[in-house]
């Protein structure tokens, strides 16, 4: 007889599972990046409080994004998260290829080290995960924007602007 | 319902930025695998050329108190790469130059003739020189003051008192604005000061003691050196030489060996490690033997720093090869083989086990090293020096050598009183550079590195301190034994030449100034014939 016994658990739809996995990936990558940015900030503390404050600020915002993801914030959060993360990736690339006036004593591009590469890899995972979480019409726009930025970076490198 | 998935097109869109973020910074690293333009087939494979040591020069004559030497600075041709001729500048035409072996208490008089061409044949500068005996408390006029230049065709006689403890010194060029080129061309050599204490200790000597003069070079297709200091930031060669030999192989017996390690590179720092990761024992620093030996598995070595290390090969089997590797330091440019320095091949049992210790039976080496007796409470003055790049120039506390010249050599950053102790704090706020800072005249004690104790291998008398990126180092020194003006500079030689050098003046209470570094013993034209010494 139907309805007797414990109710069977509702099967999880594949779309829900995918959403949950992408959300986990985004939350994990953004929180780990936030922690690594604290490390980066501490590394800069010796010579530039401004730079250190920047990285601590980034860490704080990323921790906020992580919390927003956990609470399933609005679509706008995803778009802002992608925008901010892409900006950080671009800043990373530019700082490794060009000498930025980051502080008074900066006289060459930053060194490409394991910490920086780890952070940027995590940020790329964040961008992908946030894009996947976005609604389809948002996602297309977001990814078109990311494509344009990527092409722009390559163009700047190929033309010698970034060198 | 939204499908949370990325399709192939989405991934392609992402990949433009992803590839840029990963590949472009790495391209910078990967593309820097070699610097030389000579065919790679002309470069020897590491550990295939035999180890050699520079010859020890004999004095022209000796009397009761003094040994007299004559050394000509002249061009020579070296076969550094097999079958390839490389023009060099050398003391006696060889690079590294001949080793001078001096005894404490006996003065050395060194007559140095500049027989170099009026202009460098390729680089065009006037090849003036100034010989600095690095590690010696010489009078100002014999200290190799940068502007006390000996022009081609001139001669200058230097006097070295040799009153300090036994140590590994080196003599190298210090001519203003061309120190880097001259040293790179080969004007550098070791100078060993021995004394009864050092000779009485059961530490390796004779056949079991060797200099290791580390340099790095870039070779042009015709075998000449390429000088490229990257806009005065530093020259990073892709070929590592030990005593003028690329990546040599040294045969060793199963016992302890003592190495007098000198980083004579212009800008490359080294971090030494044995391939076995076994510890090395450090027994001496720039200013001579340490109070007691220290063991370390890694040794960071800035330009001009000297460490005497003992490596024990007793535990290795005959035929076993042990490499001395360079783990590299932050902000040095590394290439394919700059991680390799040299190798040791164990031949078999030792022919002699005499002097096979790292200290005396009490574990001591030089318990009375004067610099190591200094304590912060003895300092009568504290000063701060900032090493930095400002407006495209390398400066020390905002001053350059040009400022010193402009002041008719009067401008100083400090006026310590003779025989007083001062504490100097050297600050490097940059994350992009390290600066090995050399204070002439004195031995100092490193008391603090970024608020912490110095590395254990730095616990000996020093005259160069590695001031790493974002580091602050505190040192104590007793200023003397001479009055006068002496230089302080970065030993990244392109930095020094452009223009990270200034001076301090040791002053007395009332007895007048010290000797003038330029006018007290000026060079003069080489007489013909050259009189006997």
UniProtKB/TrEMBL annotation, chain A:
Keywords: Membrane, Transmembrane, Transmembrane helix. It comes from the Bacteria. The chain crosses the membrane at residues 45-65, 77-94, 114-135, 142-162. This is Uncharacterized protein.
From TrEMBL, chain B:
Residues 79-188, 230-315, 405-507 form the Plastocyanin-like domain. Residues 524-533 have a biased composition (Pro residues). CDD domains: CuRO_2_BOD (cd13866), CuRO_3_BOD (cd13889). Residues 508-533 are annotated as: Disordered. GO terms for molecular function: copper ion binding; oxidoreductase activity. PANTHER family: BILIRUBIN OXIDASE, CUPREDOXIN SUPERFAMILY PROTEIN. Belongs to the multicopper oxidase family. This is Multicopper oxidase domain-containing protein.
């Amino acid at each position: 007889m139907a309805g007797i016994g414990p109710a069977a658990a509702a099967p999880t739809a594949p779309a829900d599972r995918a959403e949950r996995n992408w959300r986990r990936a985004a939350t994990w990558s953004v929180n780990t990046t936030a922690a690594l940015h604290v490390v980066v900030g501490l590394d800069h503390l010796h010579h530039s409080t401004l730079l250190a404050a920047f990285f601590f600020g980034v860490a704080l915002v990323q921790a906020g994004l992580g919390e927003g993801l956990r609470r399933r914030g609005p679509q706008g959060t995803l778009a802002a998260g992608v925008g901010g993360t892409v900006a950080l990736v671009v800043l990373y690339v530019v700082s490794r290829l060009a000498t930025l006036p980051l502080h008074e004593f900066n006289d060459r591009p930053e060194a490409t080290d394991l910490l920086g590469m780890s952070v940027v890899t995590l940020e790329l995972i964040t961008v992908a995960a946030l894009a996947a979480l976005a609604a389809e019409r948002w996602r297309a726009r977001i990814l078109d924007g990311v494509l344009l930025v990527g092409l722009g970076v390559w163009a700047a490198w190929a033309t010698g602007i970034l060198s | 319902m939204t499908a949370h998935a990325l399709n192939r097109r989405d991934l392609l869109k992402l990949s433009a930025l992803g590839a840029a973020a990963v590949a472009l910074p790495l391209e910078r690293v990967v593309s820097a695998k070699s610097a030389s333009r000579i065919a790679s087939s002309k470069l020897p494979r590491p550990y295939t050329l035999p180890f050699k040591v520079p010859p020890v020069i004999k004095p022209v004559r000796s009397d009761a108190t003094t040994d007299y030497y004559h050394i000509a600075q002249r061009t020579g041709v070296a076969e550094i790469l097999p079958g390839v001729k490389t023009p060099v500048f050398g003391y006696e035409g060889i690079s590294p130059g001949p080793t001078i072996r001096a005894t404490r208490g006996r003065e050395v008089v060194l007559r140095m003739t500049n027989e170099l061409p009026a202009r460098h044949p390729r680089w065009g500068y006037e090849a003036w020189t100034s010989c600095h005996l690095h590690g010696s408390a010489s009078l100002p006029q014999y200290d190799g003051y940068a502007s006390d230049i000996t022009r081609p065709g001139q001669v200058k006689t230097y006097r070295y008192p040799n009153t300090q403890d036994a140590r590994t010194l080196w003599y190298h060029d210090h001519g203003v604005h061309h120190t880097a080129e001259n040293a790179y061309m080969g004007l550098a050599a070791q100078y060993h000061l021995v004394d009864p204490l050092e000779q009485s200790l059961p530490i390796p000597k004779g056949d079991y003691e060797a200099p290791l003069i580390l340099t790095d070079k870039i070779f042009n297709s015709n075998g000449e050196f390429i000088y490229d200091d990257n806009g005065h930031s530093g020259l990073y060669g892709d070929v590592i030489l030990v005593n003028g030999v690329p990546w040599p192989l040294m045969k060793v017996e199963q016992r302890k060996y003592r190495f007098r390690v000198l980083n004579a590179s212009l800008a490359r720092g080294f971090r030494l490690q044995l391939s076995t990761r076994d510890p090395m024992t450090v027994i001496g620093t720039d200013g001579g033997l340490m109070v007691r030996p220290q063991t370390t598995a890694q040794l960071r070595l800035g330009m001009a720093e000297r460490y005497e290390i003992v490596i024990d090969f007793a535990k290795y089997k005959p035929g076993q090869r042990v490499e001395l590797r360079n783990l590299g330091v932050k902000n040095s440019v590394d290439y394919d083989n700059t991680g390799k320095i040299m190798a040791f091949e164990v031949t078999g049992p030792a022919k002699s086990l005499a002097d096979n210790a790292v200290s005396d039976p009490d574990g001591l080496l030089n318990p009375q090293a004067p610099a190591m007796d200094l304590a912060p409470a003895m300092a009568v003055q504290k000063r701060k020096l900032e090493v930095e790049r400002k407006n495209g120039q390398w400066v020390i506390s905002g001053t350059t050598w040009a400022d010193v010249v402009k002041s008719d050599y009067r401008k100083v950053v400090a006026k310590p009183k003779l025989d007083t102790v001062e504490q100097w704090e050297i600050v490097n706020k940059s994350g992009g550079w390290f600066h090995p800072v050399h204070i002439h005249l004195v031995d100092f004690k490193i008391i603090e590195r970024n608020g912490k104790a110095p590395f254990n291998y730095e616990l000996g008398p020093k005259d160069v301190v590695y001031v790493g990126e974002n580091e602050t180092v505190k040192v104590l020194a007793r200023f003397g034994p001479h009055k006068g003006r002496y230089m302080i500079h970065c030993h990244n030689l392109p930095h020094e030449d452009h223009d990270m050098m200034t001076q301090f003046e040791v002053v007395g209470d009332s007895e007048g100034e010290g000797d003038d570094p330029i006018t007290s013993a000026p060079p003069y034209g080489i007489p013909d014939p050259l009189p006997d010494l």
